[in-house]
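Narrative of activities, Objective 1.

The group set out to show that a structural description can be obtained from nothing but a protein's sequence at a throughput compatible with the screening campaign. Below is one input-output pair from the validation batch, recorded exactly as produced.
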Amino acid sequence: MEKDIRFRLAEEKDLDKIVEMLADDVLGSRRERYEQPLPDSYLKAFQAITSDPNNELVAACQGEDIIGVQQITFTPYLTHQGGWRATIEGVRTASASRSKGVGTELIKWAIKRAEERGCHLVQLTTDKERPDALRFYEKLGFKATHEGLKLKL
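Output recorded for this entry:
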């Protein structure tokens, strides 16, 4: 495991590195646009996320370097007696830090944060083209209890 990982809310100055991580895999390279300057859509999304108290874009740092990122969205539901859920999205580890426990620490941190926010459930999805990610999440205790459906617009 990487040593001395600290977690903090991402800042605008981190956006370039975050998008680079999102684009740095087979699926991400097909759907992200990591170029200079970054497309304005990333800044608009960042601003929407950081201005919403129920969204947190979290950077995992080692020293000054960002080595991981994830977004956590907290959502109230009428189901489960009006309980709150945390949804984890966009989990990425910098390529130089992969297979060193950073992803595990990111998810454990998100679970703890969900508990702090009073959530009764943590949920996430992973693309069916990522079988290693599915095994990773299952090792951390996540179970495929539902079928997830999406409609691309």
